[in-house]
């Protein structure tokens, strides 16, 4: 499956090739005058021609890494949908030691961190539990455990498309929902690393059309850390979108309807949708590319995530390697959301929602990925492919305590479990359950992807963590 491949009918295309009155003009018309005046001539050329600046420190551009080589190549509910990052600044949680997916220095014998825990092995407690859930019709999808780039456990259960009898496999791409939100944080930090964005700048330096109190007081850091103090109007979840351009225009207007209801920089557990949209709009303003194209080129392709993209609804309907979302509707039935746009979820925390109504995921959110590709994303964060080490540490810096041993970072909840860091991002939507976890101190990555909304995702996340760390969910104080 080629990243970002679309039929002409599906694609709006990179904005550098759009027709007059769309494309670059759409984006640059929303770029603030202050930002334009600050650009150097070469940066100005890059932004307004739709190009990208690839110079600043990306020595690993285009690095091709495979996990297990050929095998990978072919291929509480509030916690799920809530915002993962809160607050200002704090300690830096090292992203990788000695490296996500990288072998450490040789030692005389296997240390506790080099051994494969029995519960994480094929046939171990975690494997048996997932198999039991699948046998009881409580799980369908893919789980994967990787240790230093080597697949330890990979299991696939159930159907990606029941109508065509297409089964899940390791290369099935799943909708990520909120589990894709960290992509916008990585994108902004790439631009910060290049000197094209400053985290302390108010968003009015880059975007126009916001009220003065937001444009002048809410900074890039605030929206990335979930401390903007913004409130956004409710979305019309019953609207059916017909094109990429319609989705993008709606998102841009909706973000500018945000209102300042709190004090910027103040920690909160609330999540404003504008905090997802605004970073994506900044990426577009600075690069002259759509958010989707920027992430596909500078995160997915750079990491070797060949099965991941921001797929459109037509592609969702026709590609056998993309899992269809089976959502719960009235009466407890499961239906294919993409083939039943007139139906909506009956779940109390997202009534009436149907992810198939979005022609493409809104800028700053979502996307599709395979389980091996999320391991590649984790490696790209740890080995300098996506961000230089200091900037990767900025991504995962512990901002503000939100629990006894848990903290908010830039879109990624982080926690100390059994004396080691765990970075975890989950996403939930009707017919969607997704989570990826990075254990940087020991080189583990865990992935859970499902096309159902009635799976025990939180319990599965805890069982995965226990298999790797040996610490039962809810026990201990971080070690």
TrEMBL record:
SUPFAM superfamilies: beta-lactamase/transpeptidase-like. Residues 1-25, 100-123 are annotated as: Disordered. Signal peptide: none annotated. Gene3D superfamilies: DD-peptidase/beta-lactamase superfamily. Residues 127-454 form the Beta-lactamase-related domain. Residues 13-25 have a biased composition (Polar residues). InterPro entries: Beta-lactam-related, Beta-lactam/transpept-like, Diverse_Enzym_Activities. It comes from the Bacteria. Pfam families: Beta-lactamase. This is CubicO group peptidase (Beta-lactamase class C family). It comes from Actinoplanes lutulentus.
